[in-house]
Specification:
Number of strands: 2
Largest sheet: 2 strands, antiparallel
Number of helices: 6
Radius of gyration: 20 Å
Strand content: under 5%
Distance between the termini: 17 Å
Shape: elongated
Structural class: mainly alpha
Length: 188
């Protein structure tokens, strides 16, 4: 790697507010959301284990575990995707990026910028499409589950999708600006 291009360790840290106020705020919000997502993973694991133990040893399963798990997995993804974008850890062909980087770091910056732009568009569209569904769930008091057995409100899960996709779109736009600055710095 060249000296002009930041190292991978520099890119995964939340920048200092004085250096990049937008990056610091977005990075902090993404880190908090990701931490909450990690706590949700732990809680979901404990719930599933408790259900399995209750089902197998006490013949007393926990009602609604499959419904909770189904919604929680999606929520976890949207809670953690912005941090993955901020840290450049969203799924990609790393072997290809490294191979190109050896020949042209400038081309990698351009490729990362295109990837960030595509991510911003996709997550903005998800936010836009999810907003009316969230509002319907909120005003219509939408629930999922089996009425009389187990129900849980849908609105919080839909709100996490909207919030997560909005922060992910903003994070992708921020990554786009960082990559474009990097692209321009290689030309000078």
């Amino acid at each position: 790697m060249s000296q002009e291009h930041p190292t991978d360790n520099d890119e995964i840290l939340v920048p200092k507010f004085a250096d990049a106020p937008v990056g610091a705020v977005l990075g902090s919000v993404a880190a908090v959301m990701s931490s909450f997502g990690t706590l949700c993973i732990g809680g979901l694991m404990a719930l599933v284990v408790t259900d399995v133990v209750g089902r197998n040893f006490f013949d007393a399963p926990i009602t609604g575990v499959s419904e909770i798990a189904g919604r929680t997995v999606v929520a976890i993804v949207f809670l953690q995707v912005a941090a993955a974008i901020q840290q450049k850890r969203l799924t990609r062909a790393d072997f290809l990026v490294r191979r190109i980087e050896g020949k042209s770091p400038r081309m990698v910056s351009l490729l990362e910028a295109v990837f960030a732009l595509a991510g911003a568009i996709v997550f903005a569209l998800i936010c836009w499409a999810s907003w009316p569904k969230m509002m319907d769930a909120w005003y219509g008091a939408e629930f999922f589950g089996v009425q009389g057995v187990f129900t849980i409100p849908t609105a919080p899960f839909r709100a996490i999708t909207v919030l997560g996709s909005a922060v992910a779109a903003l994070s992708a736009l921020y990554r786009l600006s960082v990559e474009m600055r990097s692209f321009r710095s290689f030309s000078t």
